[in-house]
C-alpha cells in the first residue's frame, strides 16, 4: 500500500473533524468561570483562535480540491 504524500480529500475531512472537536472543546473551556486566586495554565482563547483559523484554511483547501476557485484578493 502506497501512502500519498499530498493532502487528499479524505485527510482534509478528517482534519476538519478533529479541528472542529478541538475548537468546540476550547470554546467550552474558555467559557468556564475562572477560579478565584488561580490562573489558567492553558490559553484556551488562543487555542480557539488557532482552531478557527485552521478550520477556515481547511475549508479553503477543500474548495480548491473540489475544483471551486475562489478569488484570491
Explain the overall architecture.
- The protein has helices spanning 9-31, 44-65.
- The mean pLDDT is 87.
- The longest helix is centred in the N-terminal third of the chain and has 23 residues, at 9-31.
- 62% of the residues lie in helices and 0% in strands.
- The chain starts with 8 loop residues before the first helix and ends in an 8-residue tail after the last helix.
- The chain is built from two helices and no strands.
- The protein has 73 residues and is mainly α.
Strand content: under 5%
Order of helices and strands: HH
Mean pLDDT: 87
User: Roughly how many Å is the radius of gyration?
Assistant: 17 Å
Give the termini distance in whole angstroms: 40 Å
Unreliable segments (pLDDT under 50, ≥5 consecutive)? none
Number of strands: 0
Q: Total number of helical segments? A: 2
> Helix fraction?
55-70%
Shape: elongated
Query: Class by helix and strand content?
Result: mainly alpha
Query: Can you summarize the main beta sheet?
Result: none
Seen as an oligomer or otherwise, the chain set is single chain
Amino acid at each position: 500500500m502506497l501512502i500519498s504524500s499530498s493532502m487528499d480529500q479524505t485527510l482534509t475531512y478528517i482534519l476538519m473533524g478533529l479541528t472542529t472537536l478541538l475548537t468546540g472543546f476550547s470554546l467550552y473551556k474558555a467559557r468556564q468561570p475562572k477560579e478565584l486566586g488561580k490562573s489558567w495554565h492553558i490559553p484556551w482563547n488562543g487555542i480557539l483562535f488557532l482552531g478557527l483559523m485552521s478550520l477556515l484554511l481547511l475549508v479553503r483547501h477543500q474548495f480548491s480540491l473540489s475544483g471551486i476557485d475562489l478569488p484570491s484578493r
